[in-house]
Amino acid sequence: MILFVFVSFSCKEKVVKNTDVKKPLNVVLVLTDDQGGHLSALGTKGINTPNADSLAKNGVMFTNAFAVVPSCSPSRGSIMTGMYPHANGHWRNTFTPKLSEGDKEFTRESSTIDKVGVHEYIQTLPELLHENGYFTAITQKFHMSPPWKFPYSSRNAIQNNPKEFKNVISSFIDEAGDQPFFFQANIAPPHRNLDTHMEEFPEFLPNKDSIVVPEYLPDTAAMREDLAKYYGSVQLADACTGSIIEILREKGLLENTLIIFTSDQGEPYQRAKASPYYAGLHVPYIASGPGVEKNKVSNALISHIDIMPTVLDYLNIDIPETVQGNSLIPIFSGTTDKVSNRNYVFGEHNSHGPNRAEHYPSRVIFDGRFYYIQNLMHDKTYELPADLMVEDGWGNGSYQATLDAKESHSTQYKLLKQLESGRPFEELYDIENDPGQLVNLAGKKQYSEVKRKLKKALEKWRVETGDLADDPLEIKTRQTKE
């Protein structure tokens, strides 16, 4: 089967498809869980991700891709609405049904309904695709609220088994029949418990001496042991991705399917996940499919709020006015090298879970080099989520490894303690020269103009996107009353 694709030269126009093709374009969003910008194609040492690397050779790989929030539920909510969490109402992790539960649990009669979730008036990506005749399916976990705003045609709780992933995606394709499809292929690794992944699939565990320890973590034997499991889980996620690609190829659908590979947030470590730092928001992002340039590396600043408008633009479906992101089709096609009128990407953190101890609102702006953070309630103490601290159950060895390195790696120890209590209102980092964000430049005179410019742009963004309160609980209350 031959597919002819003509790509527009305007973001407002759509990908034009040959009307003689019986099967329209499909989309598969591969979403790993808690994976930072770590791929062998991105230069990560000590690991091998051949499937993502192959996808990059056949498409566009972005080096400056960012989630808008470093927590699972609000990140997925932002992807499925094209909006920032403070704007769509889904600002923290929520209690939601499991994918293994019955259909009733995904309706208004569900027994698991969180008071926090996407506002009713906002159209989600699954809703729009359903209205336009697409078969939609989701794997691994739901974790979005309220459940009826995400009406997937089929669900499967498959977690981390590459062979089973192939079977599940195959069954989705069979269920879709003649309908075009959208699959949200969530993959469990490298979310903790990392021990579980490596016990089931030890062949993916790399040599701990071959990996590179991020600068914000202490380079000790205990930390390397934990990180090896993380990188091994990244390799396992890559194998699952390969199985998805393989079944698409076997069924003759790879040639008319857009694949977007990314992660919901950064790596599962302190000062990454559930915090506003670079490692918590920077994610891998690869796009491959009809109309997408091959073997291209892009440094464009892109955000997860761009996924929904990109998918809709690609499928020739109108983009709702509520969407705050941009279509990336012009970059995919090679029409332009950057997102129109974008000089910054923005991010936020509000609260990981409903526990007020985990509540610590922050805002982020990044211009490609300088990374500026405002901690809106900086005098508040912060409790890390359990999976970032607890060894029993979550298998986290990194927290204790950092505490044990107090004397040998005092900088990394102090960064951890500052995370919990003592962060300043403003933080500024030069990512080009300080990727680990070890030195806060906010108080240095020579960077005052950089800080002023970023601060002004951040404040403008907050006003334009309706982020008018330091506490998202105030925003939620106001919007509910309205």
Short recap of the structure:
This protein has 482 residues and is of the alpha/beta class. The protein has 14 helices and 15 strands.
What would you note in describing this structure?
It is a single chain. The chain is of the alpha/beta class and 482 residues long. It has 2 domains: 23-335, Alkaline Phosphatase, subunit A, CATH 3.40.720.10; 346-481, no CATH class. Helices cover 30% and strands 16% of the residues. The protein contains 14 helices and 15 strands. It has helices at residues 50-57, 72-81, 85-88, 125-131, 162-176, 194-200, 221-250, 278-281, 307-314, 329-333, 398-404, 410-420, 448-464, 472-481, and strands at residues 5-6, 16-17, 26-32, 59-66, 135-139, 154-156, 181-187, 257-263, 282-288, 296-298, 302-303, 345-351, 359-366, 370-375, 426-430. The strands form 3 sheets. Strands 3, 4, 5, 6, 7, 8, 9, 10 and 11 form a 9-stranded mixed β-sheet that branches. Strands 12-13-14-15 form a 4-stranded antiparallel β-sheet, with helices on one face. A two-stranded antiparallel sheet has the order 1-2. Strand 12 (345-351) and strand 13 (359-366) form a beta hairpin. Helix 5 runs parallel beside helix 7 and helix 6 (194-200) crosses helix 7 (221-250). The longest helix has 30 residues, at 221-250.
